[in-house]
Amino acid sequence: SISSKTPWSLRSSVSESIERVAVCTGELCQCQEIGGDEILANLLSRNEPYEIEETVCLGACGVDAMVSIEYKDGTDFLAMGLQETLETLGLDYAEEESTLQQQEKELSQQRQQLVVEIKE
């Protein structure tokens, strides 16, 4: 996999080799810690040069949210979850992890505020 410390030119060549990314949004891929819909939204927000679409069942149900990465040379790779997907695509997971931690913190604060309001 390619880390966030990989030079941009190498990450760029990774994205140029990708034809299409298909994210499973089937029921079991939604039950994971980070579901298929979240992975799909994350990838679409990045404005990558390859096709990104939603699909159903990639045949590895219940393991993790599954993502099929299809390359221009006809090969493909089945990634499990957000971290492996981003690493395989040469994208920065550390930045994503920081964003997720911030979102979790904000949600926790909102929950605490709701509890206080309900008690009042």
Automatic annotation (TrEMBL):
UniProt keyword annotation of Coiled coil present: yes
CDD domains referenced in this protein's UniProt entry, alphabetically: TRX_Fd_family
The keyword Coiled coil appears for this protein: yes
Protein name stated in the entry: Uncharacterized protein
Coiled coil: 86-120
Species in which this protein is naturally found: Ditylum brightwellii
Keywords carried by this UniProt record: Coiled coil
